[in-house]
Write a structure and sequence with these properties.
The structure holds two protein chains of two kinds.
Chain A (H helix, E strand, L loop, with lengths): L2 H20 L2 H18 L9 H30 L1 H8 L8 H11 L4 H12 L4 H8 L3 H28 L1
Helix pairs in contact in A: 1-2, 1-3, 1-6, 2-3, 3-4, 6-8, 7-8
Chain B lengths: L5 H5 L3 H7 L3 H21 L8 H12 L8 H35 L1
Helix pairs in contact in B: 2-3
The chains are: A mainly alpha, B mainly alpha.
């Protein structure tokens, strides 16, 4: 399979995976680009020992984790050197039509434990396909279902309780 | 949050959903679940990669590729050709040299 076809077929999913890991479009774009570069370089060595999609997503996950590690290191350095620079680096891009929706969603995801956030974000990006989310994250489908169930239950429970509290006061 | 059917409701169980119409607690959770779905759908559904991601990756790959060393085959073939010509000349010239000298003498 040639790179053009792989890029056409997988670039959206790689970008979504990166966005679910990194939580910010600019960083996700860079990570997706890095993942595609690694795929390009490694394509000649792909021997078909695993399926193509498994191979692609494992490369993409590694690229995302590298990017996350790099960002964490930079944020730490920036916080030591210049608190203002750190705030600027962490600032989310605004002005896109979905900026408000992204803020609302980020507010919801912040209420969840870290291990659930990525699964939840990716589930809604991937048209709610458990199988695809499981393959992209390299997790069993049962684990994805469990995480999603707990995450949705937790979020809905918090919202319902807040409503009851507001209604009661 | 004490209704025993809350868990079934979060799992999307149909009878629990019917029960939610009568139970205030479950009804609130069902509405909250819908709100969670709507918020996350609005933020994440239909997200696609920015244009040109693959093209940029390809361009970087091209820049990073080392220049390939040209093949030495043409030089080898050239060398073999000249060697053959010189060998042939070395064999034929001494053989026909007397005849050529005789011809030149007759013409001169």
């Amino acid at each position: 399979m040639d790179f053009e076809r792989i890029a056409a077929e997988y670039q959206d999913r790689i970008f979504r995976l990166a966005l679910s890991v990194l939580g910010e479009r600019g960083a996700a774009e860079e990570a997706a680009q890095d993942a595609l570069l690694r795929i390009w370089k490694g394509l000649g060595g792909f021997r078909g020992e695993s399926s193509l999609s498994t191979w692609i997503f494992s490369i993409a996950r590694n690229a995302c984790l590298t990017a996350r590690g790099r960002r964490a290191a930079w944020a730490q350095m920036a916080s030591l050197e210049d608190p203002a620079a750190r705030r600027a680096a962490e600032c989310q891009p605004a002005g896109s039509p979905s900026a408000a929706a992204m803020r609302d969603a980020a507010g919801l995801l912040d209420r969840l434990p870290a291990k659930y956030r990525q699964v939840v974000a990716l589930f809604y990006m991937q048209e709610k396909s458990y199988d695809e989310v499981a393959e992209m994250l390299g997790l069993p489908v049962g684990t994805v279902k469990t995480y999603l169930f707990r995450a949705r239950q937790s979020l809905a429970g918090q919202i319902a309780r807040e409503r009851v509290r507001k209604g009661g006061t | 949050m004490a209704c025993p059917r809350l868990k079934e409701l979060a799992a999307g169980d149909a009878t629990a959903i019917a029960h939610a119409a009568r139970c205030e607690e479950c009804h609130a959770l069902l509405e909250a679940l819908a709100e969670v779905d709507a918020t996350l759908d609005a933020a994440f559904a239909g997200i696609s990669a920015p244009l040109g991601v693959a093209a940029r990756a390809r361009a970087i790959a091209h820049r990073q590729m080392p220049l390939r060393r040209p093949s030495v085959l043409p030089e080898v073939l050239d060398f073999i050709g000249w060697a053959a010509v010189l060998t042939l000349a070395a064999v034929l010239i001494p053989k026909f040299l007397p005849d050529i000298q005789a011809l030149l003498a007759r013409l001169g």
